[in-house]
TrEMBL record:
The gene is RPN1_1. It comes from Linnemannia gamsii. This is Dolichyl-diphosphooligosaccharide--protein glycosyltransferase subunit 1. InterPro entries: Ribophorin_I. One of its GO terms (cellular component) is oligosaccharyltransferase complex. Subunit of the oligosaccharyl transferase (OST) complex that catalyzes the initial transfer of a defined glycan (Glc(3)Man(9)GlcNAc(2) in eukaryotes) from the lipid carrier dolichol-pyrophosphate to an asparagine residue within an Asn-X-Ser/Thr consensus motif in nascent polypeptide chains, the first step in protein N-glycosylation. N-glycosylation occurs cotranslationally and the complex associates with the Sec61 complex at the channel-forming translocon complex that mediates protein translocation across the endoplasmic reticulum (ER). All subunits are required for a maximal enzyme activity. Its main location: endoplasmic reticulum.
Length: 482
């Protein structure tokens, strides 16, 4: 294994920046036992692509898998993920490479391993002995790269370091495998890699392998430093509030953001003069002038505010299927800088709500988040307030979340309160911008709840005013004029 003085310095600084990364490396590169999952497959060829061109790491593993069992069809293929990286795994999907048919992926609870979390991939059809199938697994990982140097100047370009496994981690032995690493540009430097096969650097790609006869759970050390321009957007906390009004046929949405740029921190002081001279030069560094997000096509009453008030530097662009909202903060956001804001809008409810014919059941279908490109979301709270009178509420989600809470919210003109669903999730990315379903029952008589409450309150006000109008609140007796 090649180890230069530069790589040693990089590794030392990274360890000082993040103790977690050091723990990852120490745990990940330790000696491993034989996989706990049944050894019923052999990988005849594997191609792995590691995309480092964005802050979110995308890994694609395509494997030609053969059933090696003597006389039994196989339906379950296991994909391992290092336990030290389990909190970094944001999204995982699998498909048949030839047919593009999605395959069911579930976190396996049967084969527990202190060092690996196995994901069970259900094959579309049982695989007979000796037959092959091609499986593609896509994973998205967050918070695995670190800025080095940790501080850069206002117009200076930033570099990041990735430290990981040069081999594709598999639960089965592989006859042949190759890894291709893609970086944003050709400004890169490889510090460490296995010495068995010389690597090939071509433009913005690093090719590792091919490696022959690779053992299951094979590991090694690979380290690359590369240039990554632009901000590293991260939302520390997102609170998304959705209020349903069936009387007004309206869906009101408000989103509160706590945002930070996780790029290399700004060295020295910010110079407004340099920024005014070359405002576009910020794009070559790590600053951010603004962000974009998509809103529903029929969204109206759109607002963009912060703690001070309305931010007038925003703009919207109507597209055929959506509205593009361009958010521009009051100041450019360099590495380590943070800000808060909130946006809101109204949209017709009938585009999101469906009633099951012949029943009182309603199904609300709304997106979980309105994603910003290449953004990670640390903690997300989605709060859906249903109309008063809704009952038998159930949330159906396309992926696992941390917690689902059912409660009651009381607002103005309410009597018993409104059923509320609160969804708590963490480590989300734009792939999680899928529809969540809220099922509930809402009868025709429930439409009268609000008018009756309003009428009762008005009658109480009128009755109170009549009573008070007949009372004498004067001090002393009345005076009789002669």
């Amino acid at each position: 294994m090649r180890l230069t003085a530069t790589s040693t310095l990089v590794a030392t600084i990274i360890a000082a920046i993040s103790l977690t990364s050091s723990a990852h490396a120490e745990e990940f590169w330790s000696e491993q036992d034989v996989p706990l999952v049944p050894q019923t497959f052999k990988i005849t060829n594997l191609l792995r692509t590691l995309d480092l061109s964005k802050p979110i790491i995308r890994e694609i593993t395509s494997a030609a898998v053969q059933n090696t069992h003597a006389d039994q069809d196989q339906t379950d293929y296991y994909f391992p993920v290092d336990q030290a990286y389990s909190d970094n795994l944001a999204f995982i999907t699998a498909e048949n490479r030839k047919t593009k048919e999605p395959l069911e992926v579930t976190k396996d609870e049967e084969f527990y391993d202190a060092q690996f979390q196995y994901y069970k991939i259900k094959l579309a059809t049982p695989l007979p002995p000796g037959e092959k199938v091609q499986i593609t697994v896509r994973t998205s990982l967050t918070n695995l790269i670190h800025a080095f140097p940790t501080h850069v100047g206002q117009a200076e370009k930033q570099k990041f370091v990735y430290f990981g496994n040069p081999f594709a981690l598999t639960a089965y032995p592989a006859t042949k495998q190759k890894t291709t690493v893609i970086t944003p540009n050709n400004v890169l430097e490889v510090h460490e890699h296995p010495e068995e096969v010389d690597l090939v650097v071509k433009n913005n790609q690093v090719i590792l392998g091919p490696y022959n006869d690779v053992n299951s759970l094979e590991h090694g050390i690979f380290e690359v430093q590369y240039e990554l321009t632009g901000a590293v957007p991260h939302v520390r906390r997102l609170r998304r509030e959705i209020e349903v009004s069936q009387w007004g046929n309206n869906l009101a949405v408000e989103e509160h953001y706590n945002f930070v740029n996780r790029g290399a921190e700004l060295k020295g002081q910010f110079s407004r003069i340099d920024f005014q001279r070359n405002p576009m030069g910020i794009r070559d560094g790590n600053g951010a002038l603004g962000f974009q997000t998509k809103l529903p096509k029929l969204a109206r009453d759109i607002y963009y505010r912060d703690e001070i008030g309305n931010i007038s530097t925003s703009a919207i662009a109507h597209q055929p299927d959506y509205i593009q909202l361009m958010l521009k903060p009051r100041f450019p956001l360099f590495g380590g800088w943070n800000t808060t804001w909130y946006i809101g809008y109204n949209t017709p409810l009938d585009g999101y709500l469906r009633k099951i014919a012949g029943t009182d059941k309603h199904i609300l279908k709304v997106p979980a988040i309105s994603p910003m490109p290449d953004t990670t979301y640390e903690d997300v709270e989605i709060r859906v307030v249903l109309p008063e009178g809704a009952k038998n509420v159930k949330a159906v989600l396309p992926y696992e979340v941390d917690e689902i809470e059912y409660s009651t919210t009381k607002t103005y003109m309410d009597s018993a309160g409104r059923s509320t669903v609160t969804i708590l999730a963490s480590n989300l990315i734009e792939d999680h911008a899928q529809d969540l379903l809220i099922e509930y029952e809402f009868s025709q008589t429930s439409y009268l709840t609000k008018p009756l409450a309003a009428a009762t309150m008005l009658m109480a006000i009128y009755a109170t005013s009549i009573v008070f109008s007949h009372l004498d609140f004067k001090i002393g007796g009345s005076t009789i004029k002669k």
